[in-house]
Input
Amino acid sequence: MGKLIIVSAPSGAGKSTIVARLLAEFPRIEFSVSATSRPPRGKEKDGVEYYFLSPDEFRRRISEDDFIEWEEVYEGRYYGTLRNELERIWSKGHAIIFDIDVKGALNLKKIFGSDALSIFIMPPSVKELRSRLTHRGTDSDEEIHRRIAKAEIELADAPNFDVTIINDNLHEAVERTKNKISEFLG
Output
């Protein structure tokens, strides 16, 4: 078993952008592609951003114990981490980085303990989070409202993470995150 870096945040806080920059900086860290039952957004490709499974396929794989962790984030919308994804990355001697929702992050931290570094990316404010989601242009007003409601709950979990990084300046947030990961990896 190798090391894991778990990056989580409410939707729109900048975690995917930060993870992309980290991957460019750390060649021995590899992205864990999560599975989901939601349809692809924009230009997302199966096996790149997510493994896109139908809800029935996702439930079948749950019953076959194919997931190290999984969550029904919204009704009928599953997200999870496939066991074979971890094995694939560790077999190369790489550490794994996750871009994952808060519940999934806390589940992984519970499973892997000190072999995992959990990082919570905090938006500067809920108002700024709403603005980012609106300007992203990928979600309906109803979806944005649902994401903000979920974010308000997720923000309460920030103290359960090893590190909280406030993303009020992207460059500085990336640098602080890089420093924490360098310390963790040794």
